[in-house]
Specification:
By secondary structure, the protein is an alpha+beta fold. Helices cover 52% and strands 17% of the residues. The protein contains eight helices and six strands; from the N terminus they run βαααβααααββαββ. The strands form two sheets. Strands 3-4-6-5 form a four-stranded antiparallel sheet. Strand 5 and strand 6 form a beta hairpin. Helix 4 crosses helix 5 and helix 5 packs across helix 8. The protein is globular, with a radius of gyration of 16 Å. 27% of the residues are buried.
Length: 181
């Protein structure tokens, strides 16, 4: 069973905390066990996808009530990137140059996931990158949306405009996402 660092839930906690009425509504929707987990969670805590989805879904519905759930996942993935990766220690990566950063996606992936490898093939010159997620059991709609949103925000920060994406299935063992602009 794949595990993920709790940093995504921490970002959700920060976003809801910026709007007290949403945080109160959100906490009322959780079981007492989930309320404790949500409020006491540390960034390095490893969560299952089930725990992650159970904690995140009610918050997404409060933050983006008028858009479909799949789009909520993408929006949150963008927020994860903007609030977490584009600040702090990772901000220094941006000084390395566009292609260098993208080629290091697996290093970043492995900081947050205990399963799977994320590789990238392409270049800024070709204006296209193919990301391949391998050695990962099954990607949930939540996790796929977070990955897409994260990649879109990262490319937007590097290029100045949001790129296009599409999910391709070249083989049944790997997920392929094509980002182009």
């Amino acid at each position: 069973m794949p595990k993920y660092k709790g940093s995504g839930v921490i970002v959700l906690r920060e976003m809801l905390g910026e709007r007290t009425e949403l945080l109160e509504t959100y906490l009322q929707q959780l079981s007492s066990e989930d309320r404790i987990l949500f409020t006491a969670l540390l960034p390095a805590t490893k969560l299952s996808i089930e725990d992650t989805e159970r904690l995140m879904a009610p918050g997404f519905k409060l933050l983006w009530p008028n858009i479909p759930i799949e789009r909520q996942y993408i929006e949150f993935g963008k927020q994860l990137c903007r609030r977490h990766l584009l600040h702090g220690l990772y901000k220094k990566l941006w000084d390395m140059g566009f292609d260098s950063i993208v080629r290091k996606t697996n290093i970043v992936w492995r900081q947050y996931h205990d399963t799977g490898d994320l590789s990238a093939d392409g270049s800024a010159k070709s204006r296209k990158w193919v990301f391949t997620l391998s050695k990962f059991p099954t990607i949930s709609p939540l996790h796929f949306g977070l990955l897409i949103g994260f990649l879109l925000a990262a490319f937007e920060s590097l290029n100045g405009s949001e790129p296009n994406y599409r999910k391709d299935v070249f083989d049944r063992d790997n997920l392929h996402v094509v980002i182009s602009w």
